[in-house]
């Protein structure tokens, strides 16, 4: 992953902090915010957080950091 503000790769410490926040979000706030548009406005990425795997995708395909 890259820090887009500074154009550099996230440090191990930053990545660990990101994953901690992601896990906290999934445990506590997932029902409040489920859909996001992120990245460059010209080429956005759409992120969906759900409690179930995407239709047709086996849950073993997902990595758990």
Describe what is shown at a glance.
The protein is built from one helix and four strands, in the order ββαββ.
How would you describe this protein?
The protein is globular, with a radius of gyration of 14 Å. The model has no long low-confidence stretch (mean pLDDT 81). It has 65 residues and is of the alpha+beta class. 26% of the residues lie in helices and 18% in strands. The strands form 2 sheets. A two-stranded antiparallel sheet has the order 1-2.
Strand content: 15-25%
Number of strands: 4
Order of strands across the widest beta sheet?
1-2
Shape: globular
Distance between the termini: 13 Å
- Mean pLDDT comes to 81
Secondary-structure element series: EEHEE
Topology:
Blueprint: E1 2-3, E2 8-9, H1 12-28, E3 35-38, E4 45-48
Antiparallel strand pairs: 1-2, 3-4
Features:
65 residues; alpha+beta; two-stranded antiparallel ribbon
